[in-house]
Amino acid sequence: MRTAIKVVSLKSARERRQDFTDMAEGKAPVSWAFFDACTGLSPLLEYDPSDAIRKHGRELTPGELGCYSSHFEIWHALTEDAEFDQYVVLEDDVVVNWPYLDKIIERNSREDGFDYLRLFWKYPSRQIVKSWHWAGHDTSIVQLLGHAFGTQGYVIRKEGARRLKEACEHVSRPIDDQIDRSWSHRIDNLAVFPPALFEMMVPSSIASERSAGEASRSKPSKSGGAVDAARRLLFEVLARLP
């Protein structure tokens, strides 16, 4: 299975790009390239601010829409890529364990690999172990059952890209929130443990915008919230069954 690395980065982020290049040059296990991050809503997406307020409690910020669009555009590119079968998607503010990533790419290239596999997550989440000793004695696959957040790094195959495109084409929440909602779209939120990278603590315009927006956030629709909570509970119960 042929693999390429796509690094999401604003075209104007010269310093970040140079830092990532210095880190990846001669170490990345497969070919890699920057993907120019979107700065607005992709024409492939549909966004209704009133729907975001109803489901998420507020409108999405410009940075959140750009981040959402960037990942969606990468999935779209993969579905139409005749050269590569899977992408490793990274953001430009991460530090990667390259030898470990090499093992993950090789293992996920086998027939029993996963269509979507996270390399990092930001928040503690309930989880269950799905596979021990997956890419070596000390590597396992876990299924994250709640919100873990973050799109800093993941491996995705064509089928995973197709399914995520279908699940995310209508924008009402930040992209990481939407991806985490396995109880809604039925795409398992799988991750390698231990993580293969970590996020550098550098200033983020998206985080700043999000913090400002949270101050005016209202509660999502009660009826929709109750249905969502019931789906989530049932999903977790079923996921824990042997």
What's the short story on this structure?
With 242 residues, this protein is α/β, with parallel strands linked by helices. 40% of the residues lie in helices and 21% in strands. The chain has a five-stranded mixed beta sheet with strand order 2-1-4-9-6.
Total number of distinct structural domains: 1
Counted beta strands: 12
The radius of gyration is 18 Å
Going by helix content, strand content and strand pairing, the class is alpha/beta
N- and C-termini, Cα separation:
31 Å
Mean pLDDT: 92
Assembly annotation? single chain
CATH topology label: Spore Coat Polysaccharide Biosynthesis Protein SpsA, Chain A
CATH class: Alpha Beta
Strand residues, percent: 15-25%
Q: Which strand order do you get reading across the main beta sheet?
A: 2-1-4-9-6
> What is the helix tally?
9
Major sheet: size, sense and barrel closure?
5 strands, mixed
Taking pLDDT < 50 over at least 5 consecutive residues as the criterion, the unreliable ranges are none
Shape estimate: globular
